[in-house]
Every structure is written in C-alpha cells, then in structure tokens.
Amino acid sequence: MSQADPQAAVTAYWSARAPLFDGVASHVAQRDLWRTVLEAAFEADGPRNVVDLGSGTGACALIAAGLGHRVRGYDASPGMVAAAHAAAKAAGVEASFETALIGDIPAEDSSADIVTLRNVLWTLEQPMQALQTAHRLLRPGGRLVVSDALWSVAPHYRSTYAPELVARLPLHDGITEPAMRLMLEAAGFSTVRAWQQLFPASPYPGDVPLFVLSAGRG
C-alpha cells in the first residue's frame, strides 16, 4: 500500500456516504444540544473567523454560521463538500466550503479566531498533523474546539473500512479525553477546558464516551 492509498481510500469512503450521511448523523438528531455546547465552548462575544477542519456535511460549520460567525469549512471529500454546500443553502446560512486535505488547507497562518475539529481525528493517518494545522491557522489567543469519542465502545457507529486501512489509522478505535489532552499539549495548546458535561446524556446512541474540549493557542 502506498503512502497515498490511505487518504484516497478514506476520501472515497466518505464521498460514497455523503448523500445519505445526515439521515443517520447525531448532529442532525441532536442539533439543538450541539448548538448549546458549541456556543458555550466558543466563548465568543461577537462574530469570529471560524475554520472548520474536516467539515463533512457541515455539522460544526452550520452551527457556527447560525451563531453569526464567519465560517470557512474544508474537507478532503468532494461529496461531503457538495453536501455541506447544499445543507448551508437549505439552512439559509452563509458558509464557504472547499475541498482540501487538512495538511494543505489554503488559508493564511493566524487567520482564524476559532478552529473546529469534530469527529475527524479518528479518520486520519496522521492525527497530530490536524492539530498542528489548527495551531498554524489560529491567531495568538485563538481557540481550538475539538470533539471525538471512544468509538470502540460501539463499533457499529464507526466505519466499514477494510482491515488494511484500519491498521493505518492510529485512532480508528477512538480516543479518550486524557489522551486528547496529552495530544493538545504536544501540539502547543494550553488552557484546556471540557464542555461535554453540558450534554444531559451522550448524544450518541449507546452512551459512547465523548469529549468536547477547547484549547488556547498561546
């Protein structure tokens, strides 16, 4: 398997799922709860420049845009980007979406006040690269909001990747909050705060343990 194969396989998988993904996604069924949690985690007292990495169908991006922020979303899957455009139009909110790998985001350094990463790290061969990209894009004093979960608790909510692809994804089984805090520290973030306690219960069927963390770029 070449170095390019894992990303190509992941991109193809999510492009195939894009047309029907929102029909089974928790961010649609629990939209109001996610809005409450993300609004709190943003801690913004006015419109901010938000970059959403691994946007998918626009879960975080559309919530951020609905809160009045200026939003740019990026995803490697053209199918997901098309779905995000359609979702923004249907919701009547303004957000731009582009197809791009996380390591090649066409945005200037220090151009974002907030970067969001929701359920992205487990899909990546190099998850630390995503945190480093977020750090690069944030202005000094900016904030990363990252959410993921321990997917091994309920594996049927993960993927049907081929075994050889799974072996290349270090966080395919998910990640715990303590492990995420260590990754954030290694990527240069500080002042980490948890927000998942604002959910009355896990938004994922099966009570999958999740975290929503904010972290500052010094």
TrEMBL record:
Keywords: Ubiquinone
Lineage top rank: taxon: Bacteria
Phosphoprotein is among the record's keywords: no
Pfam families with a match to the protein in the record: Methyltransf_11
Domain Methyltransferase type: residue ranges: 51-146
SUPFAM superfamilies according to UniProt: S-adenosyl-L-methionine-dependent methyltransferases
Keyword Manganese in annotation: no
Record InterPro entries: Methyltransf_11, SAM-dependent_MTases_sf
PANTHER family assigned: TRANS-ACONITATE 2-METHYLTRANSFERASE (PTHR43861:SF1), TRANS-ACONITATE 2-METHYLTRANSFERASE-RELATED (PTHR43861)
Annotated protein name in UniProt: Ubiquinone/menaquinone biosynthesis C-methylase UbiE
Phylogenetic placement of the source organism: Bacteria, Pseudomonadati, Pseudomonadota, Alphaproteobacteria, Hyphomicrobiales
